[in-house]
Amino acid sequence: MATESEISDGDQLDRELAELLEVERFEPPPEFRERALLKDPAVYEQASRDPLGWWTRQAEDLHWFSRWDTVLDDSDPPFYKWFVGGTLNVSYNCLDRHVEEGRGERVAFHWRGEDGQERDITYADLLAEVQRFANALKDLGVRKGDVVGIYLPMIPEVVVSMLACARIGAPHNVVFGGFSAEAVRERMEFSQAKLLITVDGAARKGTTAPVKDRVDEVMGGLPSLEKIVVVRSKGTACEMQQGRDVFYDEIVAAADPHCPAEALDAEHPLYILYTSGSTAKPKGILHTTGGYLTGVSATHRYVFDLKPETDVYWCAADVGWVTGHSYIVYGPLSNGATSVMWEGAPDYPHKGIWWEIIERYRVSILYCAPTAIRACIKWGSQWPRKHDLSSLRLLGSVGEPINPKAWLWYHKVIGGERCPIVDTWWQTETGAIMITPLPGITATKPGSATFPFPGVFAEVLDESTGEPLPEGQGLLVLTRPWPSMLRTLYKEEDRFIETYFSRFGRETYLVGDAARRDKDGYFWVIGRIDDVVNVSGHRLSTAEVESAIVAHVDVAEAAVIGQHDEDTGQAIVAFVTLQGTLEGDESTIEGIRGTVADRIGKFARPKRIIWADDLPKTRSGKIMRRLLRDIAEGRALGDVTTLRDPAVMGELEQRVSELQAQED
Fold this sequence. Notes:
The chain has 21 helices and 30 strands. The longest helix has 17 residues, at about 5-20.
């Protein structure tokens, strides 16, 4: 229960935030601008005038074994190729060159375990471990081009695994540790992974989840999967199948310590990362080597104004999502950054753990999701105020649009009104940040991602005409290729074209988000235009969740929508038709939520379940989720006469109204 002083402090903070809401835009602090890597707005015009020259200069900051012949091959859109003919290695760029240039003793990661355990891992340490594990993978039969699955929590071995794969040219397929074992199997099957790297157990707020045993329950019978490597992280006993399973520490100890980095073509696949689509089958986003590393290295350096000699950088995401790939692993390491890596949740062992970590390691750059910021607001400003956050000089936001109140709280309570905020928009598909402030240049508006990064070309198009809108709301698109863009959907080239390049032609990438531009040209990303729900920055297709709900024995049919939620950005609302009865009880609700947790993960559980005798469908049988969103949000429905049974809408409106009355 809040004390009187805390209530008083909260009231004072609310008044101060209300005053800040009157500020239209926030200029970069003069002292920050003075020291910024980019401080001349002319960089936008220079990159716009000569984008290939701009990206060439960014690529030249990397180490190449052989230089490219052609910067961009755009002869067969949308199958663009960058730095054609060049060869490089991501692992070499992230490790070897730093060690060779005398930075081997620089800390790459301050790792902190949920139980308080700490490890400082230098670039030299990381290089030594990566070389041994790369050789161990080769000893197990992994060759260039073989897909390796990675299902690990936030422990140093997840970074080692990714870099070891990159070193030998084996594309990795990382699965977020919060996904269920069934989701891992699905992704291993789709990608035809040859080997899977997993863990004995994972920390879960003071308990240990038995990961390997759950993997064993579902991983049998995959013809491509030959080996499973098990990291002994928590000392949890697990079954080991003879001839298939090996322990990470044993094979690393037995491996040769020297493994030269393979010179790989710029277009060689670096990784596959599955993301939800508008159907139940996830999409395998394929990223390649040269263009991707160019994009993440440049954006990490300039968006976060990185000074690797002095900064301590913390991206508080998970390596299992693209944010972790690009801005925990590849971007920071390619730039020689010192990062923090935290194993646990933001509220365990207490709600001030993030701020304790920032104080402990003198973090200067923090990059996190609006969901986390909103949770911190809910917990109260007394938690961050217990700690010295004066080391912070830059704040970032990622994963979803941030509402102005959360932006202002972040600015005032965490940043002390001295730290620029880079509110970034990008996707798994884009590989790197696309729309963002440049902290030494851009005047920010709370809630706006501001302008495209130099060398990126974005427009808002009229939904009807396809014409650019200098002001107003429409569909967000990217109109020119960029180095870090996805190359295709893994083994689904037709789906790649259909999903991203069918509506406005093969040279215009349809983002899938609605956006608006204001009178000053600022971009405001509004949200998805397809049937994808964004929960705490995690994108889930409605069909994927619906499939999990229908797997429950009592469910006949389900339709899922996303509804605005103060804590998670969007919450999953499920309209469910049961078999043989109209309405279930609490045990039915918990059973459905448990089924979704088992098949996808706990974060995908519906927050609200609304019983429905039938669902609104067109005469062809398509469920009209738009109408369900209107009901859930209390909007007028308009004409519903085209539905197969218009009376369904009245019944659902009544049921939602009754449920809301109960909740109130």
